[in-house]
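Retro notes, item 3 of 5
We never archived the inputs for the D-mannose complex last cycle. Fixing that now. Sequence and ligand:
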Amino acid sequence: MRHIEQTWRWFGPNDPVSLQDVRQAGATGIVTALHHIPNGQAWELAEILKRKTAVEAAGLAFSVVESIPVHEDIKKRTGRYRHWLENYKISLRNLGAAGIPTVCYNFMPVLDWTRTNLACRIEDGSEALRFDMVEIAAFDIFMLKRKNADRDYTPEVLSNAEKWIEHASETDKQRLIRNIIAGLPGSEETYTVDNFRDTLATYEGITADVLRTHLVEFLRDVAPAAEEAGVRLAIHPDDPPFPIFGLPRVVSTAADVEAVYAAYDSPFNGLCYCTGSFGARADNDNLPAMFRQLGHRANFLHLRQVQLEPDGSFYEANHLEGSHDVYQIMLEIVREQQRREHPIPMRPDHGHRMLDDLRKTGGNPGYTAIGRLRGLAELRGLEMGIVRSLFDNKT
Ligand code: DNO
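Structure as it came back at the time:
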């Protein structure tokens, strides 16, 4: 029987959660990125090896890069996109040379993952990340003042957004702006309202069809290079998995992922199966089935839960609770793992700020130690229980 690999995201030497902490959490693999290298630049072998040495000195493996960001020019196929593409391939080759087997990336225009509240207190007193559709609408319509933004929301959300803006203090508004566009951990880009508006304008005319074509072109170019370098690509789904602020999103559903797979048919061109991202869309209502369909090319796993609300809002629930059936998802993962030679890397994705972490300041929202420790502990117990009951009892 084969087990998935337990990994942990580490933001590098400045991460308040240390590699020693990670060891105590019980993960064996590290997911990290060279965040200091500007988007588009090639990652030099020496820089990669330096990070690898630091990780290995702590008794851990450098398992996954998350992420090599895709330059906006590549998504739009404008400007110096050919140059950035060549750099992307250089980074992949250097990672291959350093023996790093997996690279996660996303193809979301302008924004990476998006939340409105980074400290939403839930019933047990811990703090979760939340995406509130009413606050998104209030930002979009009244602060960003995007043309025709009101057309993108239901009448109920619109009327609640009006109420929100009426009652919001200046501090509430600034907090909302910061949470949405000042960049969440790992998202690399930060914006002010004005330059966010300007950046959105550069996507005029880029419909979902156009963006998908650009993604396919990106993959036809880059995936063969990844294969040659021995590096498995894992595209991260859109988070949340629907268009936002008028920007198209094309990695939100199973059909979207099939188009990614079709662009270059290889196990090296795969998916980061992220339960929390896919699961934030009401019609992705059967995640185990989605894994059955797509899992043969899942090169990386992000496991967490969301609790959906009727207006499209959601918050991040504890790893084993929420709107989806994590047991069934894990069962599919365990089955897929038995068909693979290599352990599929999995990380507990996000966690609540809880216990002692509530008394600390700073840190990366969603990436505190204790919440993720709880997530990893629960997930590894679930996996072990499934593996043992399926295989061990029969030997
Ligand atoms: C959020 C992360 C994402 C992810 C990127 C992958 O916590 O899952 O920021 O790293 O989208 O490129």
